[in-house]
Design a protein that fits this description.
alpha/beta, 5-stranded parallel sheet, 4-stranded antiparallel sheet, elongated
Length: 151
């Protein structure tokens, strides 16, 4: 089985087998000795570090926009989603935003220590005037904070 590993795998002792991949941005997140050692062990076992292509990243951004997760997923999250889409791989992660976008893209996900995320659509509502918007931030009408809520 092909799998794309999020940083969570390197911070835990979750067993992974098969054809494993990750991205350079995930490797850059590994700061502590334990996660770096886990990374080295997985590289020796055949882990490949690959950069996704820009077309895959465009598809991820579009899917994140549709699901309402664009404001909360990071560049690293987009990289692993794009790589999994390109490879037809399963993503190993506990990140709910990644799981939500992956569901919209039809990418299988394997949670590690958390329960699987349910598919969520977000809405953004002004805390002052109650109007709805496509993203969070400051309301252009009343100046209050726009907050993300479950749809």
């Amino acid at each position: 089985m092909k799998c794309v590993l999020d940083a969570t795998v390197f911070f835990s002792d979750y067993p992974v087998t098969g054809e494993c991949y990750t991205t350079p941005s995930v490797v850059a997140e590994l700061k502590d000795l334990t996660s770096k050692c886990r990374y080295d062990l997985l590289v020796e076992a055949g882990l490949r570090v690959c950069q996704p292509d820009s077309g895959g990243l465009d598809r991820v951004h579009a899917a994140a926009g549709r699901s309402g997760d664009l404001a909360v997923i990071s560049g690293t999250d987009c990289d692993i989603l794009a790589l999994a889409g390109e490879l037809g791989a399963t993503i190993f992660t506990d990140d709910f935003a990644i799981q939500n976008v992956a569901a919209g893209l039809g990418i299988p996900v394997q949670p590690l220590q958390q329960r699987p995320a349910k598919k969520i659509r977000w809405k953004y509502r002004c805390s002052g005037c109650g109007r709805y918007f496509k993203t969070d931030g400051e309301c252009p009408v009343c100046g209050s904070i726009i907050k993300r809520k479950l749809k």
